[in-house]
Amino acid sequence: MEKKTLTIPYEEYTSINELSAEDRALLEAAIDATKGSYAPYSHFNVGAAVRLEDGTVVKGANQENAAYPSGLCAERTAMFAAGAQYPGVAIEALAVICARDGSLMLNPGSPCGACRQVMAQYERMAMKPMRIILGSGGPILVFEGVQSLMPLIFNDL
Ligand code: THU
Prior knowledge:
The chain has helices spanning about 20-35, 75-85, 115-125, 145-150; strands spanning about 10-15, 45-50, 55-60, 90-100, 105, 130-135, 140-145. The protein is an alpha+beta fold. Strands 1, 2, 3, 4, 5, 6 and 7 form a seven-stranded mixed sheet that branches. It is globular and about 50 Å long.
């Protein structure tokens, strides 16, 4: 037996102004997307935005439902909308932001496992890493690909 350790590389920015122009625009789109959040149960508003390889930006926001499992996270709302409207166009980056009562959270939210699995599939279809930007009112974390968020991921393709 050999003990092994995985390390997760990521970048931490202290302000949205430190991001490149295109990452900043994507995070701003995610912030704007929180306006579309329907969260009468959790009151937790999540916005997401994906940037496609042709520069198109598609937004999503969490959508809740009285039958709880019928709701969907912001990340999957955005990715599925992009997949449905622009089939075959690679998603190259995804930004996520969380807010409560109209104020951005002080720390980045972390995508759930189901969203990470969906990210992995779109990343695999794109055949290039998906840049993931987790924003907040405080630090902003940037990951170079889904493998960083979900090591040893299941892939059947
Ligand atoms: N949610 C997201 O939209 N994305 C995440 O990464 C985590 C959680 C939503 C689901 C639900 O509407 C609310 O946040 C509370 O869990």
